[in-house]
Amino acid sequence: MATETTPKIRIMKGAASDLSAATYQVHDESHTMGNALRWMLMKNPKVEFCGYSVPHPSEPNIQIRIQMYDNLSSLQALLKALEDLDNLCETINDAYAESLKNDDYEKWDEKS
Amino acid sequence: MDVDSRRLVQIGAERVSHIGDTEFPGHYPNEDHSWNLDKFREKLTVQIQRLSQRSIEFDLVGVDASIANAFRRIMIAEVPTMAIEQVYIFNNTTVIHDEILAHRIGLIPLNVDPTQMDMKEDGAPPTDRNTIEFQINIQCTHNPDYKKGSSSPTDDELYVNHQLLSSHVEWKPVGEQSTRMTDVAPTNPNIVLAKLRPGQGVEMSLLATYRLHPNIIIKSPIPIERADEFSKCFSPGVVKINKKKGTVEIDQKGMRNDTVSREVLRDPEFKDMVELGRIRDWFIFQVESESAYKPEQLLPEAINVMREKISTMREAATALLKAHGEGGDDDVVME
């Protein structure tokens, strides 16, 4: 294995110079983040196209392709999607904690 | 329950249609489907249904499959737990081969809270902060108390230690572990790891799913004479029959237990009377915990893991943005 550490995110060859269309290779991620990010990016009206792939099952990489309208920066869109996804996680966490604390649900004894 | 048809996955006799979510910007004219946190918060429902000491069932309504799936994937594969990684075998005369026995031992769930320990990096030396040590030492012998006479004696009568159980895995506290932790052991003491016979001995040093909420609509009244047959097409508790009034209804609470077997669509009379579906954004999570985590802790842990992933990616993306901004054609142009 190479001694230098692999960067977490790498812009792959062939990206537009203004990053309005680029493929990002994300190291050590899988469908978990790939599909969630893809969905969040598609929720952005400035994004023309977004898709992700896992190029090979035994390589711990995913590739996310983002193409933008109006020559906007796809990197900015990626950052926005990450921030939105974080807010979404926080919202679900709060709603879950609230339900666990205040809701009236069945508690039962399960034998292992 | 009246569900918007856009939220339904339709289930026909031979096919399933309308699987994917279509609410994206630009899909429907004059509708705004861009990401909106306030709207999301309004539509989101998280409701816990049942809780026991080792499992939880909760509904997650109003999220996309990609998000629900991310949580499921993290819960089954990425929430850290403790497991036996290295097994040194000094003596194993059982019929179970060394490597198979080692593998079986690796699968035993332990009751150690992973947050109390550090992750052991590759090649790092073991310390009392990142490693827990166990040992196994049993020997099977004939039972000296057994007297001949019984025509079919059980193993328990004949032998001592004829089974290697997870309760034989004995914790050896190292360093400050004896003060920091108590009663480290497998969560279940009755897992059979190997069977032994006299002369054999061992000495060593040592789940989440989800589904979509079903939706059943009766389009035209079901004839009361065939009500029982209709009811048998579904899981128990789904169909409500009122013999006095002569009505057949779907129980709105019992509906969640239906398996959507489509049996009803095989009946020539019934097939046009009902419509089957699943609600695309209504996830029924069933989480079982076999580790040190309480079942209700697993989703928050999964969300933490997800947010950590997000923050590492954000750092990397911000760094990339800076690096690109320096050499790129940004707003400050000096010529």
UniProtKB/TrEMBL annotation, chain A:
Keyword vocabulary terms for this entry: DNA-directed RNA polymerase, Nucleus, Transcription
SUPFAM superfamilies named in the record: RBP11-like subunits of RNA polymerase
Gene Ontology molecular function, alphabetical: DNA binding; DNA-directed RNA polymerase activity; protein dimerization activity
Taxonomic lineage: Eukaryota, Fungi, Dikarya, Basidiomycota, Agaricomycotina
Name of this chain's protein: DNA-directed RNA polymerases I and III subunit RPAC2
Keyword Transcription: yes
Location(s) in or outside the cell: Nucleus
GO CC field: nuclear DNA-directed RNA polymerase complex; RNA polymerase I complex; RNA polymerase III complex
Organism of this sequence: Gymnopus androsaceus JB14
UniProt keyword Transcription present: yes
UniProtKB/TrEMBL annotation, chain B:
Keywords assigned: DNA-directed RNA polymerase, Transcription
Pfam families: RNA_pol_L (PF01193)
DNA-directed RNA polymerase RpoA/D/Rpb3-type domain: residues covered: 55-316
GO molecular function: DNA binding; DNA-directed RNA polymerase activity; protein dimerization activity
One GO CC annotation: nuclear DNA-directed RNA polymerase complex
UniProt keyword Transcription present: yes
Transcription is among the record's keywords: yes
Domain of life, source organism: Eukaryota
InterPro entries in alphabetical order: DNA-dir_RNA_pol_30-40kDasu_CS (IPR001514), DNA-dir_RNA_pol_RpoA/D/Rpb3 (IPR011263), RBP11-like (IPR036603), RNAPI/III_AC40 (IPR033901), RNApol_insert_sf (IPR036643), Rpo3/RPB3_RNA_Pol_subunit (IPR050518)
Stretch forming the signal peptide: none
PROSITE patterns: RNA_POL_D_30KD (PS00446)
GO BP term, example: DNA-templated transcription
Name of the featured protein: RBP11-like subunits of RNA polymerase
Origin species: Gymnopus androsaceus JB14
Taxonomic lineage of the native organism: Eukaryota, Fungi, Dikarya, Basidiomycota, Agaricomycotina
